[in-house]
C-alpha cells in the first residue's frame, strides 16, 4: 500500500520552516478495476475446454488518514493530484487480476473534508481516523463467471469499473483544549513559550505571530492540556482589519479561552474597552466562540502602574469572568493560571 507523507525530497521549492497552510484543494482519482478475461481452457486431450477467464482486480482506493505528527496541510503545497493504482486484467486459468494498491494520504488531526460545493464529507479528529475519499473501481467479471447449463461457452465478460475521481477541499482546524486570544502585543506568544516547549516568535510590536502555534502544557506528571496561540485580534478583524479573523477557526474547537489583556502598557483605551472589543470580534465570527468559557488573564503585572490598572479592570469586569494577574515574561502567576485552566477544563465538556 502506498502512503503519501511529505518528505524533504518532495520539497522542490524552498519553503519557510514555519510555512502554515490550513486550506487546500486536492484532486483524487481511485484506480480503475481491471477488465474480466475471455479465455477457454486449452489442454492436451481436451478438445473444447470450458471458459476459464478470471475476474479483473479491483482498483486501489484513496484513503485519507490522520497522522498526529502533522500539524498543517503544508505538505499539499507541492502535490495536489493523487492517483491510486489500477487493478490488472483477469487472466486465463481463472486467475483474478491483481488488486491496485490503495493510496493513503496522511492529514493532520482536525482535517475537515468537503466536496467542491462545500458539503461536509468527513471530520477527521483522532489518530488513525480514516475516510475513503475515492473508492477504487470493481474488477469486471471474466467469462468463466457466466458459464451456465444453457451456455457452456460464454463469450461474455465485463469491463472494470472506473475508479471514483473528484476534487476535495481540505480545511484544518487545530484541536487545542485552551485557545490563547487577545489584542496584538498582549503577550500571548510569550505565555505559550513559557508554559510549553512551543517557540512562537515574540517581539515588541503588533502582529508578530502570523500563524497559530500549539503547545503541550504540563499540569503534573500525568495530566497535560494543549494550548494554541493565535495571531492578535483588533477591532474590525471580522472585516479584515489587521490579520483579519481567519485564524479564529483554530480556536473553534477549543474548550476554554485564555483572554490576555495587557495591563502594563498605558494605552489610550482602558483595558476593559480593549477587552470588550476583542470579545465583540469573537461574537462577529460566531456565537459559539463568544459563548466559550473564558479566563481573563491580565498580563504584564510587572510593569509600573500595572497594579493600579489591574484593580480598576477588576472592578469594571464585575466578577463576570475568572480573572488572574500574571507576568508571562517574569513567570509570575503561571502555575496558578495553569491550575485555574485545568480546573475549568475538567468542568467543561469535550471539544466540539
Ligand atoms: N514587561 C513585560 N513584557 C511582556 C510580558 N509578556 C510579554 N511581554 C512583551 O510584550 C511584547 C509582545 O509579546 P508577544 O508575546 O510577542 O505578544 P503577542 O500577544 O504574541 O503579540 P502578537 O503575536 O503580535 O499578537 C514582547 O516584547 C514581550 O517581551 C510581561 O509579562 N511583562
Ligand atoms: Mg504572538
Keywords:
22% strand; binds magnesium ion; binds guanosine-5'-triphosphate; single chain; five-stranded mixed β-sheet; Rossmann fold; alpha/beta; Spo0b-associated Gtp-binding Protein, Chain: A; 352 residues; rod-shaped; 5 helices
Strand order of the largest sheet: 11-12-10-13-14-15
Taken from the alpha-carbon principal axes, the silhouette is rod-shaped
Helix content: 10-25%
Overall CATH architecture of the largest domain = Distorted Sandwich
Name of the top-level CATH class of the largest domain: Mainly Beta
Please report the distance between the alpha carbons of the first and last residues. 33 Å
Mean pLDDT: 91
Computed over alpha carbons, the radius of gyration is 29 Å
Roughly what fraction of the amino acids lie in strands? 15-25%
**Given the structure, what is the number of helices?**
5
In sequence order, what are the helices and strands, one letter per element?
Answer: EEEEEEEEEEHEEEHHEHEH
- Write out the distinct hetero groups bound to the structure: guanosine-5'-triphosphate, magnesium ion
Secondary-structure class: alpha/beta
How many separate domains make up the residues? 2
Unreliable stretches: 6-17
Report the CATH topology name of the largest domain: Spo0b-associated Gtp-binding Protein, Chain: A
* CATH superfamily grouping of the largest domain: GTP1/OBG domain
Question: How many strands?
Answer: 15
Major beta sheet summary: 6 strands, mixed
Amino acid at each position: 500500500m502506498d502512503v503519501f507523507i511529505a518528505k524533504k525530497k518532495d520539497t522542490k521549492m524552498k519553503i519557510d520552516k514555519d510555512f502554515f497552510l490550513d486550506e487546500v484543494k486536492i484532486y483524487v482519482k481511485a484506480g480503475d478495476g481491471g477488465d474480466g478475461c475471455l479465455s477457454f481452457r486449452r489442454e492436451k486431450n481436451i478438445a473444447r475446454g470450458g471458459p476459464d477467464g478470471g475476474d479483473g482486480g479491483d482498483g486501489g482506493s484513496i484513503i485519507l488518514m490522520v497522522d498526529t505528527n502533522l500539524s498543517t496541510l503544508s505538505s499539499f503545497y507541492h502535490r495536489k493530484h493523487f492517483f491510486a493504482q489500477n487493478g490488472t486484467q483477469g487472466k486465463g486459468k481463472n486467475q483474478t487480476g491483481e488488486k491496485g494498491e490503495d493510496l493513503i494520504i496522511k492529514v493532520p488531526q482536525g482535517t475537515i473534508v468537503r466536496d467542491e460545493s462545500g458539503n461536509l464529507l468527513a471530520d477527521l479528529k483522532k489518530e488513525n481516523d480514516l475516510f475513503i475519499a475515492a473508492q477504487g473501481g470493481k474488477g469486471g467479471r471474466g467469462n468463466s463467471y457466466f458459464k451456465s447449463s444453457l451456455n457452456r461457452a460464454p463469450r461474455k465478460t465485463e469491463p472494470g469499473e472506473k475508479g471514483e475521481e473528484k476534487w476535495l477541499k481540505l480545511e484544518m482546524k487545530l484541536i487545542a483544549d485552551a485557545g490563547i486570544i487577545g489584542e496584538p502585543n498582549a503577550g500571548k506568544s510569550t505565555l505559550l513559550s513559557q508554559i510549553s516547549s512551543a517557540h512562537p516568535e515574540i517581539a515588541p510590536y503588533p502582529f508578530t505571530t502570523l500563524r497559530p502555534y500549539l503547545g503541550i502544557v504540563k499540569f503534573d506528571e500525568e495530566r497535560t492540556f494543549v494550548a494554541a496561540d493565535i495571531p492578535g485580534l483588533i477591532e474590525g478583524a471580522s472585516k479584515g482589519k489587521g490579520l483579519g479573523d481567519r485564524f479564529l477557526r483554530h480556536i473553534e474547537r477549543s474548550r476554554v479561552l485564555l483572554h490576555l489583556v495587557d495591563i502594563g502598557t498605558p494605552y489610550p483605551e482602558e483595558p476593559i474597552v480593549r477587552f470588550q472589543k476583542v470579545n465583540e470580534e469573537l461574537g462577529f465570527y460566531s456565537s459559539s466562540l463568544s459563548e466559550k468559557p473564558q479566563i481573563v488573564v491580565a498580563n504584564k503585572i510587572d510593569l509600573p502602574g500595572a497594579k493600579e490598572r489591574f484593580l480598576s479592570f477588576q472592578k469594571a469586569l464585575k466578577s463576570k469572568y475568572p480573572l488572574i494577574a500574571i507576568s508571562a515574561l517574569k513567570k509570575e502567576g503561571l502555575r496558578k493560571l495553569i491550575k485555574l485552566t485545568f480546573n475549568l477544563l475538567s468542568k467543561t465538556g469535550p471539544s466540539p
